[in-house]
Amino acid sequence: MVKKTIHEINARIRDGSVNVVTAEEMVNIVGELGPEGASREVDVVTTGTFGAMCSSGVWFNFGHSEPPIKMQKVWMNDVEAYTGVAAVDAYMGATQLSESQGMDYGGAHVIEDLLRGKSVDVHAISHGTDCYPRKVLDTSLSLDDMNQAIMINPRNAYQKYNAATNSSKQTIHTYMGSLLPRLGNVTYSGAGVLSPLSNDPEYLTIGTGTRIFLGGAQGYIVGQGTQHASAGMFGTLMVQGDLKKMSPDYIRAANFTGYGTSLYVGMGIPIPVLDERIAQATAVRDADITTSILDYSVPSRDRPVLRKVTYEELRSGHVELEGREVATSSLSSFKRARAIASELRDWISRGDFFVSMPVERLPGNTSSHAMKETEGVSFVSDIMSVSVVTIEKDASVYKAAKIIMETAFNHLPVVSKDNVLVGIVTAWDISKAVSQNKFDLVEDIMTRKVITARGDEQVAVVARRLDQHGVSALPVVNGGNHVVGIITSDDISKLFARRH
Amino acid sequence: MKIKINISSETVVKPIIAESILETGVLLNVSQAHFDRSHGEIVADVMEEHYEKMYKALSSRGARVTRLDSPIEWNEEECVECSACISVCPTRVFSLEEDYSLKVDKAKCIQCGTCVEMCPQRALTLINNK
Q1: What is the maximum span of chain B, computed from C-alpha positions, in angstroms?
Q2: Burial (0-12, 13-18, 19+ Cβ within 10 Å), A214
Q3: Under the phi-then-psi rule, with left for phi > 0, alpha for psi from -120 to 50, and beta for the rest, what region is A262?
Q4: Number of folded domains that form chain A
Q5: A333 touches chain B (CB under 8 A)
Q6: For residues A250 and A264, what is the distance between their CA atoms, to the nearest angstrom?
Q7: Would residue A214 count as lying in a domain?
Q8: Which of A262, A350, A390, B6 is deepest in the core (most CB within 10 A)?
Q9: What is the mean pLDDT of chain A?
Q10: Mean pLDDT of A220-226
Q11: If you average pLDDT over residues A383-392, what whole number do you get?
């Protein structure tokens, strides 16, 4: 039975006799020596991860201006930072977007620009008070000009994360990257064998106060991260570090097309090997860590799980999904995760970094629940028109025009003889046909690729579909593709008009 | 060599590709085609020595022809080697080496631009895509 203390390990770091290995190297050591032998041999195991962590940001203290201002709103390079605290403190979140550049530039880019030594334009406004008379402020500040720039990331280093795919017919753009139609690819995140929390799943050494590698500098774990769900092995960490000491090698802004900005954060956590139980935990392999492939085409909190998968399978470059081989790719860099684990190992070996025990353990057995919603959720079937007028595909354009005039419906779903939806004609299609002197059949002028809705879908989901496709109405269909109603942008605006 | 053929809404209904192939006797190998209401876009392979002939035939029928002679550009400084590009590339331009460095085989690139959208670092660009 091996028992070591943090003080013994730190004494070895001080006198240069410490034995540090990365979590990747530890797999073989435990394989050869067993957990007891390995815990005798190895003092510290280092982990590393480098992935997009949206829940990241920096607290800035700008210093006081003359005359002073109580910043009520502040923008850095046109990206708004959160103020609602004391006069000249603000929190820049990684995913906040520029008001002029939109998704091309965000909080993450402000952070990276500062880290690269660039100055950012700071603009602030205030109502003015007796103690803080100034109402407007414009200046340009670099990282050196700030009193503090403290990175505080509310949710980082997920123990593991879901993999993503898309079963729909269109490419979708998500925070998991572009997902190609018809299960065209699978993306995933996380460092597997090197993942910090996967190497200490019982949180024996990782907790409040643990000293870590954050963005190339020493940082600390504040405590459990938001949404920490330890019961399902989805633990998270809240971490803090000094941005002024970090490096752009390990803190990088990212853009996910159609989603927005995020921040790549490099983090490494040392795990002191105090006994064989910890040694055994750090021997975790990619094959031991499982996650689920979710279908991100379902715009719901509860996305369908297509299958369970191990990180070993994900890392192999392809997985089998519904009988097909589907290409996988990582969104986090294993090469950098490795570099972080190695750099942290070198810091400790050189005596530049000492390990610590947490002052408080992270909570085990917690779960993250869904939002309680007190406002009723509206479904398409609640607000759609059921008195929908359809037209048969072999009717004349003249007849369609007449129906539109008589019923004041601008959209006519086109159906076959057995009432199955085959197209849609709008007042605009008819105007176009008339202007071209075409008075043939509805079939010739209709749009065949109809965007539809189902009655059990939420209005919020369907509203986005209208917006994405630039249309103003969707036929509502049942499982047999029979038209049961129609929902228009008018119906949706009426719903909101009632609410506000 | 690869060419991109853009066809406007007026000519999208005419068989200009077929006509050009018949007129010149030059074969086109279509690798991508995209059509919607407003325009059509085709990427095809044509032999270098036949390019001029094909260019004239297509242009005279109202198509805009661009040579795709610059494959994907990879900015190694920006790249963090996350490897997101790997799973979206139809021709496996991207792969990881033994040490997890990204390897880019430009010769395989058909310039579809899917990876450009996928890259979170904006480290991939396609000149012909602009």
Answers
A1: 52
A2: buried
A3: beta
A4: 3
A5: yes
A6: 7
A7: yes
A8: A262
A9: 94
A10: 98
A11: 90
Q: Is the CB of residue A262 less than 8 Å away from at least one CB of chain B?
A: yes
Mutation to test the B interface, candidates A104, A251, A329, most B Cβ within 10 Å: A329
Higher pLDDT, A413 or A434: A413
**Which residues on chain A are in Cβ contact (under 8 Å) with B81?**
333, 335-336
B104 contact residues in A (CB cutoff 8 A):
none
| Tokens standing for residue A97 | 């977007």
pLDDT at A60 over 50: yes
| CA A177 to chain centroid | 10
- Integer Cα distance of A215 and B8 in angstroms: 50
Domain that holds residue A39: 6-53+152-361
Q: Is residue A168 domain-shared with residue A251, that is, in the same domain?
A: yes
Q: How many CB atoms lie within 10 A of CB A375?
A: 6
- DSSP, collapsed to helix, strand or coil, labels residue A427 as helix
Q: pLDDT above 90 covers what percent of chain A? A: 81
* pTM beyond 0.80: yes
The mean pLDDT of A135-145, rounded to a whole number, is 98
| Virtual torsion, Cα B2, B8, B9, B12, nearest 10 deg | -40
Q: Residue A435: what pLDDT?
A: 86
Residue tagged active-site, from A131, A370, A377, A497? A131
Q: Does the beta-carbon distance from B117 to A52 stay under 8 Å? A: no
Cα separation, A496 vs A11, in Å, equals 66
| % of chain A with per-residue pLDDT over 70 | 99
The CATH code for residues B72-126 is 3.30.70.20
Per the model's pLDDT, the better-predicted residue between B95 and B16 turns out to be B95
- Mean pLDDT computed over A34-61: 98
Q: Thinking of the domain B2-67, which architecture would CATH place it in?
A: 2-Layer Sandwich (3.30)
Please give the Cα distance from A115 to A84 (Å, whole number): 25
Out of A187, A327, A334, whose CB is closest to B100? A334
Beta-strand pair A44-46/A270-272: antiparallel
Please give the full DSSP string across A69-85, using - where no structure is assigned.
Answer: B--SEEEETTEEEB--S
Sign of CA dihedral A286, A287, A292, A293: positive
Output the pLDDT for position B130: 46
Residue A54 annotated as catalytic: no
The residue assigned the tokens 């997101």 is B84
As given in the structure block, the two tokens for residue A59 are 């607290």
Residue A72 near residue A311 (C-beta atoms within 8 A): no
pLDDT tens by residue, B24-62: 999 998 888 888 767 788 889 899 899 999 999 999 998
> How far is residue A374's CA from residue A447's CA, in Å, rounded to a whole number?
40
Contact flag A335-B101 (C-beta cutoff 8 Å)? yes
Contacts with A301 (C-beta within 8 Å, 6 or more apart), sequence order: A370
Partner-chain residue, chosen from A317, A328, A336, that has the shortest CB–CB distance to B80 = A336
Cα separation of the two ends of chain A: 67
Higher pLDDT residue, A95 or A2?
A95
Q: Does this chain's domain B2-67 share its CATH topology with B72-126?
A: yes
Tell me the pairing of strands A163-165 and A290-295. parallel
Q: Please report residues of B whose CB lies closer than 8 A to that of A177.
A: 84, 88, 118, 120
Domain ranges, ordered by start, for chain B: 2-67, 72-126
In Å, how far are A124, A131, A380, B23 from A127, measured between CA atoms?
11, 12, 44, 74
- Select the highest-mean-pLDDT range: A147-156, A359-368, A405-414, A415-424: A147-156
